[in-house]
């Protein structure tokens, strides 16, 4: 059984779409542990603020099977993959970590680089699993968060109940 960490974000009807993403992940993978929900500015383009969170679950599914399930959930949200990477989206779900696996073979890239690059991924991950050791750096998520330039990507906690 693997421990899996997944990031979710949305800036198009975010509460509705995050609710959809959480429901679909729960239906496919069972009980979810969730971080708080964080608001962040769009990065790389002009757009509405994003709501983001990280969830964890236990699964017998392979990383590829999880990525396939994520794509099905994206489709349910109406996500259009024809646009660019830097655009508004109803739902964005990313496989962040799968145990201590290190793989970079599309579509599976774990640990995802976003973990160490963006506050909206690292902060909720450090909240959810502060003692989790990054499989490449050997440092905990809490250590990474303490050393992150938090002013570069300011976050606010949002009071949302799913």
What does this structure look like?
By secondary structure, the protein is of the alpha+beta class. Helices cover 32% and strands 25% of the residues. The protein contains five helices and eight strands; from the N terminus they run βαβββαβββαααβ. Strands 1, 2, 3, 4, 5 and 8 form a six-stranded antiparallel beta sheet that branches. The two termini are 26 Å apart. The model has no long low-confidence stretch (mean pLDDT 94).
CATH class: Alpha Beta
Mean pLDDT: 94
Query: SSE order, as H and E?
Result: EHEEEHEEEHHHE
Unreliable runs, pLDDT <50, ≥5 residues? none
CATH H-level superfamily: 7,8-Dihydro-6-hydroxymethylpterin-pyrophosphokinase HPPK
Shape: globular
Write the layout of secondary structure elements.
Layout: E1 2-10, H1 14-29, E2 33-34, E3 37-40, E4 50-59, H2 63-77, E5 92-98, E6 103-105, E7 108-110, H3 114-117, H4 119-128, H5 141-147, E8 156-158
Antiparallel strand pairs: 1-4, 1-5, 2-4, 3-4, 3-8, 6-7
Question: In summary, what is this structure?
Answer:
The chain is of the alpha+beta class.
Summarize this structure as a short list of keywords or feature phrases.
162 residues; alpha+beta; Alpha-Beta Plaits; six-stranded antiparallel beta sheet; two-stranded antiparallel ribbon; 8 strands; 32% helix
């Amino acid at each position: 059984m693997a421990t899996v960490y997944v990031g979710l974000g949305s800036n198009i009807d975010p509460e509705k779409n995050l609710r959809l993403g959480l429901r679909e992940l729960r239906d496919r993978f069972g009980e979810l542990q969730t971080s708080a929900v964080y608001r962040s500015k769009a990065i790389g383009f002009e757009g509405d603020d994003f709501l983001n969170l990280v969830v964890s679950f236990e699964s017998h599914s392979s990383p590829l099977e999880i990525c396939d399930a994520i794509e099905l959930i994206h489709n349910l949200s109406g996500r259009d993959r024809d646009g660019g990477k830097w655009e508004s989206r109803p739902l964005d779900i990313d496989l962040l970590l799968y145990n201590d696996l290190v793989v970079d073979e599309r579509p599976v890239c774990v640990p995802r680089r976003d973990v160490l690059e963006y506050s909206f991924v690292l902060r909720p991950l450090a909240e959810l699993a502060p003692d989790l050791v990054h499989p490449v750096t050997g440092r905990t998520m809490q250590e990474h968060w303490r050393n992150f330039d938090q002013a570069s990507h300011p976050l606010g906690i949002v009071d949302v109940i799913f």
